[in-house]
Structures are given as structure tokens and as C-alpha cells.
Amino acid sequence: MLGMMMQRPLLISDILTYAAEAHGRSEIISVRCEGDLHRQSYRETAARAAQLAHALKAEGVDMGDRIATLAWNGHRHVELYYAVSGIGAVIHTINPRLSPEQLLYIIGHAEDKLLFVDLTFVPLIEAVKDHLPEGLRFVIMTDRAHMPDTSLDVLCYEEMLEAQPKQIDWPEFDENTAAGLCYTSGTTGHPKGALYSHRSTVLHALYVSLIMGAGYPPESKILPVVPQFHVNAWGLPYAAPLMGHSLVMPGPALDGPSLFKLMDSEKVFSAWGVPTVWQGLSAEIKAQGRIPEGFSELVVGGSAAPRAMIEAFEKQGVDVQHAWGMTEMSPIGTHGKMPQWVKDEDFKTQVDRKSQQGRRMFGVDLKIVGEDGTRQPHDGEAAGELFVRGNAIVSGYFNNEEASRAAMDAEGWFGTGDIATIDEHGFLNIQDRAKDLVKSGGEWISSIDLENLAMAHPAIATAAVIAMPHPKWDERPVLVAVAEGEETPSLEELHAHMEGEFAKWQLPDDVIWVEEMPLTATGKISKLTLRKTFEDYVLPELR
Ligand code: AMP
């Protein structure tokens, strides 16, 4: 027997309509590329998203069309999130930190129709414009007065909106319609696209609001330093309006002093981002001898939060929430909200707990699988690859059958490539990474691609890239190499060989020449042994 309840689709446009009606005075406060601090309410945001939706329609945008952005966190980027998906098109957020080659690949693979560009990123597009697909059109996200002098054929964002009506009846369609597209680096080859649906996005926003923001004072201010171009700023542009909290958007100003000033003047309650950005804020807090006014919670994820960082913030009265997730998971999987029995423990035990990755969010199932393929107990001891299942987790990758097949197990769970334990209270502990990637400043570098390129150098016989700890960037890649003959080229020479295919920040920080590579039983390079051998290694910059 079926229930007798209405079948209303879960649509993203409903979030903004709800926020405008129920939390109309909460705001999006944005540091903009133009240099000003801009404020607008959710009510105004809904009106501007309606104008943008009409403008997109006028430009011929249709259901399913991919509309790309190269933009910082800000109100116009949020308007795009809602307007594009609201009319059934797909918002494709592009990471500007990718190499030109990857950028071109992604734009081509997604078959973007329009590309919305923040002022900062116009030169990035100009540099590759001869290689962009024909027919791709550009919109500069500013007003007429700030339009840049560019050789590109461009539209002006504010002009597009101007004459359009501020109301719209958002169309209704299947909740499984694609809404967002975000590419994530693979261990090898090209980036792969996670294609979110309306249903997955709304459910993820609900889950996040249930847990992360539910205990905040009403109309709190949340600062997503995690970029909108990287996994939708962890879903905050959807979750915050749902909860009635305001969004404080840092735009391009991500250094410690700028973040401190913004948080202090806006009295930001909770700030979200990768460990690297909090190093900068920490330094500024030290310099000022105080934390920003009102600062109460730090959500940190994307890479493991260093224990020292957790301790330092906790000692200043900031509640550190360690979260774990993936682009493929919309992205939040686990979070560090603590039960009372942990809060009753001494400081050290609490920090121990906070150094782990927390417990699962509703809607996310976790299992760990041992090397022999069997499911491991949740006893805090047995380690294995972490697999996840849920209704905001990918079922494959956009137009990429091979990667889709490789990602899922026979039971339909998604393999994260993380090695973890789970204890009897449900706490996740990420111990290692099975995937061959280095994460620097929250962004990926493919070890395998670097190795392949290094081995194309005539002086290199074998190469392996390993991650070395770095206090600011978390990890930096170091190349371990066996020479083909007598010649051992310098790091600069190797960089010259590798440039172009990788962004500059992705190139190795050092090269270590070894006589031979340690191998595993199956004849592969043993990165485990290499990591052990170079346990005490210090990066050149830190010596
Ligand atoms: P991304 O898709 O770029 O968000 O990266 C997801 C991956 O980042 C995960 O599979 C982990 O390898 C890593 N990661 C994310 N959060 C954490 C965390 N809190 N601790 C350790 N690793 C993390």
C-alpha cells in the first residue's frame, strides 16, 4: 500500500523562494573584485536571480545546457547557482587553479554554452582564447563602469539583468534533473565530472542544515572560505539560506589579514575552509593578540586538520569542527559535532576526538573494506578502504563510462580511495590515502601524471612522486628519481621540462636522486617504503 501524500519535486529554486519569504532580511555580504563590500538581502537575491533567469532565457539557454563560471565567492556567483539551475540548466563551476590544459579539457568536455567570468580571471581566458570551442560566449561579472578592455567578445552581467523583470514562476520539472557539474582531479588522466541533481542538492542542504547550522544563534553569519568553484563551497550557498543564516563572501581576499578584518567587522560566527587558509588567519590572530569579534566556530576539512591547529583555536574559545567529504559526495560525509560525553572529557581527549574526522551525516552510509575485499568491523582497529553510499553521492561520472565503472563496487557503493577506521561510536579516522594524489592547499596534484611526465625526460629511468608535509600547504610533491645514466638534471631543468602541462604550483618542490626504487611484492613502486625512508625529510624551503 502506498502513502497518500503529494509528490512535490525537490527543486533548488524552492530554497531561494523560501529564504526570500521566511528569511528575507538575512544577507549575502560580498567582497567584490571591484574592491567594494557589497550587501544584499535574500529577498533582493531572489529578485536578481529572477532577472538573471529571464536574461539567460533571452540568451537562448535551455534545459540541460551547461553554463560555466570562473568566479570567486560572491553574490553574483550565488545568483548564478540559483538562476541557472532554476531554469533547468546546469551550473558548471570551474576551478581557476587548474592548468590551462585542464581548463580547456573541462570546458570542452562539459560543452559549456556560456562562461561567466570574474574580473580577476579575464586574463586566464584571454590566454587560451584561440583554443576555446567556437560558439562559447562570455559574460563578465561586473557593471558597465568596470568592464575590462579585452579582446574577447563579451557581455556585461549587470547590463544583462537591467531590463529584466524581478519576478519569475520557476518552472517545475523532475527532481532528478541535473543541476550542477563540478570536475575533480583523477589519480590519472583528465578530471572527472560529478553531476549533481536538484534532489541530491536539496537533500544535502537539508542534511547540512540539520547538523551543522542548527545550533547557531538565529541569523548567524557564516563565512565560506572554501570556494564556490570547489564543491559548491561545501553546499553553504544552499544550506545557509535554508537556515536563515547570512553568507559572508570573501571574494578574492583570502589572506590572513583580509579574512581577520572581514570576520571582525561582520562578526562572523562560523568560518569554513581547508587547513591552509586557517594558517594565515592563525598568524594574524597571533599578530593582533585576539580572535575576530564573534568568532565561535571553525569548520575545517578538505585535508586533515593538524592537531596543533585544533588546539590553538580551541584554546582561544573557538569550537573546531573537523569535517570530511568529497566532491563526489556533494561534499560533506562526516562532521565533528561532539556528543556531550566527549565534551565532558578533559581537553586532551577532546582534541584527540577532534583530530578524527567525526561521525557520519544522516544520508551517508559508511563501510570499510579490507584488502581481501571483506567488510571490516567498526571497532576503531580494523582499517580498510572507505566506501560510501547515499542520495547525495555520485552514481558515476558525467560522460565517462570507464571512470564510472572503476568508481563503484559490485554492491553499488562508491570507493573513496581513503584508508580509514571507524570506531564503535561511529567516529571516522582517515589514516592514509590509497589514491595516488597529493593535496596542496586543498587542491589536487596527480602523482601519476607528474611521474609520467618526469619519466619522459631522457635523464630519468624511474620516478615516483610522494607527498611531503608542509606547514602552510599541508602537502607538497617531491620527485624521487633513478637516473638513466650519469646525468642528474637540476630541479629547474626538470621544471622547464614539465611546465605547460601542469600549473606552476603543481610542480615538485624537490628532486631526490636514488640508486633504485623499492618495489612491492607485485613489482610496483612501494610508496609506503619511500614514505618511510624519507620520514625525516624536510622540504628545501623549510630547512
Ligand atoms: P575533494 O573532492 O577535492 O574535496 O577531496 C576529497 C578528499 O580529500 C577525500 O577523499 C580525502 O582524501 C581528502 N579529505 C577531505 N577531508 C579530509 C579530512 N578532514 N581529513 C583527511 N582527508 C580529507
Total number of beta strands: 26
Task: Name the shape in a single word.
Answer: globular
What is the terminal separation in angstroms?
70 Å
Tally of separate helices: 18
> What is the beta-strand fraction?
15-25%
CATH class of the domain at 12-253 equals Alpha Beta
How would you characterize the largest beta sheet?
A: 7 strands, mixed
Task: Determine Rg (CA atoms, Å).
Answer: 23 Å
Mean pLDDT: 95
* CATH fold type of the domain at 12-253: Rossmann fold
What's the CATH H-level superfamily name of the domain at 12-253?
ANL, N-terminal domain
* List of distinct ligands in this structure: adenosine monophosphate
What would you say the CATH architecture of the domain at 12-253 is? 3-Layer(aba) Sandwich
* Backbone structural class: alpha/beta
Low-pLDDT parts are none
* Strands in their spatial order, largest beta sheet: 2-1-11-10-12-13-14
| Proportion of residues in helical segments | 25-40%
